Prior knowledge:
The structure holds two protein chains of two kinds. By secondary structure, chain A is of the alpha/beta class.
Amino acid sequence: MASICFYLHVHQPIRLxxxxxxxxxxxxxxxxxxxxxLYLERIIEKSYLPTNKIILELIHKTDGRFKISFSITGTLxxxxxxxxxxxxxxxxxxxxxxxxxxxxxxxxxxxxxYSLKEFVAQIKLHEKKLKxxxxxxxxxxxxxxxxxxxxxxKIVESLxxxxxxxxxxxxxxxxxxxxxxxxxxxxxIILLLKHYRLSDDIAFRFSNSSWSEWPLTPDKxxxxxxxxxxxxxxxxxxxxxxxxxxxxxxxxFEFLEEFPIEALKRGIDFVLPSEAIKxxxxxxxxxxxxxxxxxxxxxxxxxxxxxxMQQFALNELYSLEQAILATKxxxxxxxxxxxxxADHFYYMCTKWFADGDVxxxxxxxxxxxxxxxxxxxxxxxxxxxxxxxxxMKKEEALRILSDFSDIFWCHDGKVxxxxxxxxxxLKNMSNETYSYHANNEKNDFSNWVRDVIKDEKLxxxxxxxxxxxxxxxxxxxxxxxxxxxxxxxxx
Amino acid sequence: xxxxxxxxxxxxxxxxxxxxxxVCYHLTKELVNKELEVIFLxxxxxxxxxxxxxxxxxxxxxxxxGSWINPYYYEKKKCNISIQGVNGVYYENILEEVKxxxxxxxxxxxxxxxxxxxxxxWMTFEAGILAKKIKKKPLVVHVHSxxxxxxxxLGICKEIFEIERKAFEExxxxxxxxxxxxxxxxxxxxxxxxxxxxxxxxxxxYRMDDKEKKENKSSISKLIKNKKVxxxxxxxxxxxxxxxxxxxxxxxxxxYKDVVFVFAGYxxxxxxxxxxxxxxxxxxxxxxxxxxxxxxxxxxYRIADVYVMPxxxxxxxxxxxxxxxxxxxxxxxxxxxxxxxxKNSILIDFWDVRDIANKIxxxxxxxxxxxxxxxxxxxxxxxxxxxxxxxxxxxxxxxxLW
Lengths: 491, 402
């Protein structure tokens, strides 16, 4: 009997503020902290905590025979930093050795389609984050929305990955089965293909009472799995299936508790992706000439780049790549990358008027037009910021670096009259002094830079850092940047 | 034998004031196409010659009753009637005039034979109830707007509200033009849900005489050269939110140079709106057209770059369908029925002028947004036809009543 490879994708986007035309150029943050917090806390309660609890119990109950793999996006991990107990609940599962972390793009982006350089950068950022939090380096890769095409295989292979998760789309497989391993065409990397029928039975149809197989019992489900001919059944889905897409009331948690037990009872075992590629051999090369994803019935990219608004927004966003990276400004680069998250483009999808409610349910906006307007206003704000920086005059840079008569009085008795002194002062001050001036309630350094020196950009950056070392570094970077501007204008 | 519908309206081409006349026209035409007979009873302005007979069919009989019925104060001069009526929106003696109209109808009701009564909005409701009483035939009331919509929360005419309430009670079936209105009459008139059937309006060309399709070399074309055109088109009355349009226009013009606002329509607030445009300092950017002929309206739809409908309460809003048909992206009030059909539009809260301006600026600045809204909006309009909607009325309502 074929083994089950059970994989969940865990992700939350960082949603945008209702950024209006009038906000352009006002130096307003793009991300809706409050709404993101609200959504995140809801999903933690409804999905992450109860699901992780069940998974951990299953591992213990089955003596480690139940196995599971996850990919957790960087955007979610970042948001979860304020909820250490949630991170810990994932950590506990991973520490059992029965769970494997899968790599992906940090920002859950479509960079693989628009900029391979950016794609690689985001994979590395994700690796770094996983190392930081879980101390693990992933060997298996999944691209955003399982988007795959031959070239992606080559790049991912070059980064040291052994296998990629992809959609077992009929248009690729034709007469072949998704229940075997395949080798990527032109790349030395294994493909694990999603069994979409058995995956979607849980992910999409579980609570659909008009489905002829409803209600889905563990017994029924596993009897289907047991009929599969092949080595492996890849059951891939969004983690949020449990408790969010399928509500608790639908019985989804009971199903999750019981189906693995039922499987093991019938002699069906679970494998991690990295075990699967050792245990089984690929049966053939598989050619993915065009992009394939796991979305909608078309299994293509139309949910993200199907209409002109989406295409335009994406082209605009990626056309800024060079200019953004050239700023070397951490904040603006990070904001630009957060804008790459695929969800922003999904919200602009106009297919959902016809396609049923799947898209609509996940859309925080009234309409795709609203989503596009907000996104484009932000793009224009970024452009303006880039222009503003580029056009800054030598005189302005000199002014910011000069001495000011309204000096900064530090709590430890020192005084600063310019950015150089602020930089050195920050480096040498005690942590107590720093947190006396910069804490959750206020940030005196940022305020002084804003009100006296009148450098909005540096003031904003200072507000976001968490330690005196970081603050000192930020000031140092700004000084270098301004000095460069002065030098350039002299030349 | 063909079944016969006794229809009572108060607008019929060429005398069209609002959407109702258009609905009556298309509905009647489709009913006749579907082999039903229609007696159309309508008030007819006494001082006007019936210049254009719209369409003739042996199955259609139009009965006109000379009357001054005209609920809005369009032709003040001709009628010589005070405008300090109820709410300042109606003629002072409208209630008496409606009573007189009802009485005149009685003669015709007794003379004619029919299978069902179908009447449109409050001015015809009493005549409808009377017809039901006399001939014991089922009564369908078709609601295009209620006193609550017209009153805009500023107070309503109790007598009219009562006429509406009574008609909803007496009716065998109520047709509303949207779910938005259905919910309203369930809540405020205490009507049972199963008594109501929603039949959305469709788009249909209401200009009957296609020969008149002259190229309109309007003087407007010079004023709008090389400029984007933002269009308001509707009665200039509180219900339609004209003030919000102008206030949003002010904000837009601060951020977008080459723009012209065409303010088309006539109504009791027109003078006030002209004053407001002066006060806001945008009088040079707003073109007030006054009342327009059908072909002029069509011309405006064709040249506009975006259509804005900031209605306070819009039971349907057929102009938005028309605008979308002629290729305008539409920005429409959340308080409207048309949004249920015109899904590819941008929704706004009528009071949020800053957001209206934000959305107008987006459509003006982001060409691709304009393009997608245009394409998809037109598709929405084409999804619903008068033939389909008439079919719905016959199958879901008439068939069950007669």
